[in-house]
Amino acid sequence: MNREITGRAWVFGDSIDTDAMYPGFAMKLPVPEAAKHVFYDLRPGWTDQVRPGDIVVAGRNFGIGSSRPVAALMRQLGVAALVAEEFNSLFLRNAINNGLPALTVPGVRELVADGYQVTIHLAEGWLEAGGQRVTVPPLPPMVLDILDAGGLLPRLTADGYLRPAGSAR
Predict the structure, then answer these.
(1) Closest Cα partner for 72 from 14, 33, 42, 110?
(2) If you compute the radius of gyration of the chain from its CA atoms, what whole number of angstroms results?
(3) Within 13 A of 157's CA, how many CA atoms are on the CB side?
(4) Please, are residues 91 and 64 in contact by the beta-carbon 8 Å criterion?
(5) Which residues does residue 126 pair with via DSSP β-bridges, in sequence order?
(6) DSSP the chain
(7) Distance from C-alpha of 14 to C-alpha of 145, rounded to nearest angstrom
(8) 117-121 and 132-135 as β-strands: parallel, antiparallel, unpaired?
């Protein structure tokens, strides 16, 4: 995994809950189809506009609500990373466990607008946008290891704690 990520920003507000990200009716659909409904009510048509490498930027309490597997949908859409002023802790852990980088950057919405080019460095702990750079705590080495492996299950498999999918018992 590249620890420096550059992409186009999509900015969302505060207290975006997982129900708004992954509507209930879409939970019965296969992941590729369900992904077409991310932010369905908040920003209709967004999934037709988002491109691989884009970065979702949000305010405080991003990902509150139930533990819907939104990270899998974001990855399906090609979202490269999430940046928020504050993440719900369960949502943050689900993102990391699914191999989707997530960096907390207080005040990020004051620096970034839709369409801005944003660069983040996960290991060094900084974000650059609009000619400004802010520093934040870097992601811990254990989190970087999980992201490098593509998520928690691939990390546990690589470390020998889980058997590879399809292997004999």
Answers:
(1) 33
(2) 16
(3) 12
(4) yes
(5) 121, 135
(6) --SEEEEEEEE--S--BHHHHS-GGGGGS-HHHHGGGTTTTTSTTHHHH--TT-EEEE-TTBTBSS---HHHHHHHHT--EEEESSB-HHHHHHHHHTT--EEE-TTHHHH--TT-EEEEETTTTEEEETTEEEE-PPPPHHHHHHHHHTSHHHHHHHTTSSPPTT---
(7) 29
(8) unpaired
User: Which of 84, 118, 119, 81 is closest to 100 using CA atoms?
Assistant: 81
User: Are the beta carbons of 124 and 138 closer than 8 angstroms?
Assistant: yes
In the prediction, which pLDDT does 169 show?
A: 62
**pLDDT by residue for the chain (169 residues), tens digit each?**
789 999 999 999 999 999 999 999 999 999 999 999 999 999 999 999 999 999 999 999 999 988 888 999 999 999 999 999 999 999 999 999 999 999 999 999 999 999 999 999 999 999 999 999 999 999 999 999 999 999 999 999 999 999 988 776 6
Structure tokens at 6: 């550059």
pTM: 0.94
Token duo for residue 7: 């992409």
Write the single-letter amino acid at 129: A
